[in-house]
Amino acid sequence: MSALLEINGLRGGYGRVEVLRGVDLQVNAAEMVALLGSNGAGKSTLNKVVCGLVPAWGGSVRFDGHDLSGAHYRAVVQAGLIQVPEGRKVFPNLSVLENLELGSFTRARERRTSNLEKVFGIFPRLKERLAQNAGTMSGGEQQMLAIGRGLMAEPVLLILDEPSLGLSPLLVEEMFALIRRLRDEGLAVLLVEQNVGQSLEIADRAYVLENGSVRFSGLPQELLGSDALRRAYLGL
């Protein structure tokens, strides 16, 4: 049985600068995969190339049986590969409701009402703030909104790019509890994070990206006990 997301030999970058150097990565259905690495390792570039926001220089991306190599980002969304970007990227001058509705602009528009109720079941706080402009919300609330907006598109696989970035320790705990819940409900998730410890606690498998290449991959318990991981990721 083939993987839900299969990335082979993916290369990409900006201008003449190569960032991704032949990345291989897989995510299976209903699986939580952590992609770890320090700033500049290429994690966000990988997300952008996979989602059609930055053109690939080489390699292939297959998702749910379809070849998405070089596909337009709308085709990627229509296939059910949804990204919650780093920094949340909510629309600050639009209301919570308007931000959520935009999540279903390309995919699942006909089920917008029922999906809104599902999102409110996960994030009751958003229902209390429907008319509030997103730009006036706290960082944690904006992250909830960004994830809720992604869920409005009925993702087959959800990419979460640094969801704990800029959050207080308490909110980080809440965010990882939420991500665990999504995984437990059967949603495939690619979790892109610098928070190694908590990511490996909830992941089924993990990859470590260093200088645009996958240096290590395996089960979380293998990586946690690996001296090689500490050298590659922490520089020890």
TrEMBL record:
List residues of the ABC transporter domain: 5-236
In terms of superkingdom, the source organism counts as: Bacteria
User: Listed GO molecular functions?
Assistant: ATP binding
Any Pfam family matching the protein: ABC_tran
**Listed InterPro entries:** AAA+_ATPase (IPR003593), ABC_transporter-like_ATP-bd (IPR003439), ABC_transporter-like_CS (IPR017871), BCAA_Transport_ATP-bd_LivF (IPR052156), P-loop_NTPase (IPR027417)
Per the record, the similarity remark reads: Belongs to the ABC transporter superfamily.
Q: What is this protein called?
A: Branched-chain amino acid transport system ATP-binding protein
The record lists the organism as: Variovorax ginsengisoli
